[in-house]
Design a protein that fits this description.
Elements: H1 4-14, E1 20-24, E2 37-38, E3 48-49, E4 53-56, E5 70-78, E6 92-96, E7 108-111, E8 115-120, E9 123-128, E10 138-139, E11 150-152, H2 160-168, E12 173-177, E13 181-187, E14 191-192, E15 203-204, H3 206-217, E16 221-228, H4 232-241, E17 247-251, H5 262-268, E18 272-276, E19 280-281, E20 287-291, E21 294-299, H6 303-321, E22 331-336, E23 340-341, E24 347-357, E25 360-365, H7 374-378, E26 382-386, E27 392-393, E28 398-403
Parallel strand pairs: 5-6, 13-16, 13-17, 14-15, 17-21, 19-24, 22-25
Antiparallel strand pairs: 1-12, 2-11, 3-10, 4-6, 4-7, 5-9, 8-9, 18-20, 20-21, 22-28, 23-27, 24-25, 24-26, 26-28
The structure holds adenosine monophosphate and magnesium ion.
């Protein structure tokens, strides 16, 4: 039996980075950037005002107060998008709106809230009630991003802020990793699709749906191949349908039962089996190999085992295909809220609820941990990871958790 770490190493070694494509910026949420992005300009592109108010020389406001305001002549009105025309002289101000170009001779902006417009002999003036500091309310050119600066790296999983940065630097189209096409095949004589009639001995194929959605959440395109009965002909037929895909996931039929044919059929079809059975719970009976160069994961049939095995192996594999630089799931340290005993030699992934309380993460299990009990997975927001060598983990111990949302 191979360890989780060795198995993951083998998986990541076997997985190749997928090709790239160019897409519209609008469509790039959740995609992985496949190029380094440099800014084509300074952002902001010019010195501008951070407030609606008056652009002036800060020295003209020295000692200004409500009791003793400074009075400046207003010589121009500059809106966002305008180009200021007037030259600012001593004791003059220019009315300015947020985002408008700062007039050349101005070195501060006083916000409108500490001023009052006044008319003196038909001319426009402003009373300033507060002393300004140099550069106050001024946004300097390039203070956010400099022209030529590396703003986003190849491998970045794009979020809304990244997309905003891409728009700011003029990228209407971006190179991203192509989405891998992932075929999903459920197996089992007892397994039926959701809308089929539930008769004695049959179960609905939840795996077809959990895996489908997990593939999408990992950044792939899911292709449902349906359900194969535990017969060589059906398995061979269905597996062959996956050969145009980038990755194949099967569920069920990889254990040691009389009708667990998946591993043998994969071998017959020329799969290079890299490992079978991993020292973990749930998820032990799983197989990984390459079928004509295409990676194939034979995941266990139990609903939680298949989901956990996906999290542990398939999600990182898809991230590698996408050349994604950071893992999609974050890990944290938490304080265990109950005693747990486990079998030595296996790494456990328990369904957990992790919350932030008293300045630390605290984790507890969500209920029965049988690998068929999907409800406790549905209630979990994390996996509590317990190391191989331990047999008893006491309440209050520090444990690693993988956050699932
Ligand atoms: P197996 O790995 O084929 O021995 O299946 C282990 C357990 O998982 C059995 O109880 C199966 O009925 C169940 N199972 C297998 N495939 C699915 C599936 N697609 N959806 C839900 N449960 C399944
Ligand atoms: Mg089965």
């Amino acid at each position: 039996m191979i360890s989780v770490d060795d198995a993951l190493r083998k998986v990541l070694k076997a997985i190749k980075v997928i090709g790239k494509e160019t897409i519209a910026l609008r469509d790039s949420l959740g995609r992985v950037l496949a190029e380094d992005i440099y800014s084509d300009s300074d952002i902001p592109g010019f010195d501008n005002s951070a407030m609606d108010g008056y652009a002036l020389n800060f020295t003209d406001t020295t000692k200004a107060s409500v009791e003793d305001p400074k009075i400046l002549e207003v010589i121009e009105d500059v809106k966002a998008g305008d180009i200021p025309k007037k030259k600012l002289n001593k004791l003059q101000a220019i009315r300015i709106m947020t985002g408008a170009i700062l007039p050349k001779d101005a070195d501060a902006v006083v916000m409108v809230e500490v001023t009052k417009k006044v008319k003196i002999k038909g001319k426009e003036f402003v009373e300033i009630y507060k002393c300004a500091k140099r550069n106050e309310n001024v946004r300097r050119a390039g203070e956010d991003i400099k022209k030529g600066e590396l703003v986003l790296r190849n491998g970045t999983l794009l979020n809304s802020a990244h997309i905003g940065v891409l728009a700011s630097v003029g990228k209407s189209k971006v190179r991203v990793a192509r989405k891998p096409m992932v075929a999903i095949l459920a197996t089992g004589n007892e397994v039926i699709d959701v809308n089929e009639r539930l008769t004695p001995g049959k179960i609905r194929s939840s795996n077809s749906y959990t895996l489908y959605s997990q593939v999408i959440s990992a950044g792939g395109i899911a292709k449902n191949l349906g359900i194969a009965k535990d017969t060589p002909s059906q398995l061979i037929n269905k597996i062959k349908q996956s050969l145009g895909c980038d990755l194949l996931i099967t569920s069920g039929g990889v254990s040691v039962g009389d009708y667990d044919l998946v591993k043998d059929i994969l071998s017959k079809l020329g799969t290079n089996i890299e490992f079978w059975k991993v020292a973990m719970r749930p998820g032990k009976p799983m197989v990984f190999g390459l079928i004509r160069g295409i990676p194939v994961f034979g995941l266990p049939g139990n609903p939680v085992s298949s989901m956990v095995a996906f999290e542990v192996f398939v999600r990182p594999a898809i991230a590698k295909m996408l050349n994604q630089s950071a893992p999609s799931r974050k890990e944290a340290e938490a304080i265990l809220q109950e005693d747990i005993s486990k079998k030595k030699g296996l790494r456990y992934f328990l369904r957990g609820n992790t919350t932030w309380r008293n300045s630390s993460y605290q984790a507890r299990t969500t209920g029965p941990q049988g690998s068929g009990i999907l409800k406790s997975m549905a209630q979990a927001n994390s996996l509590i990871i317990l190391p191989e060598e331990k047999e008893v983990i006491k309440k209050g111990s520090k444990v690693k958790v993988r956050l699932l949302d």
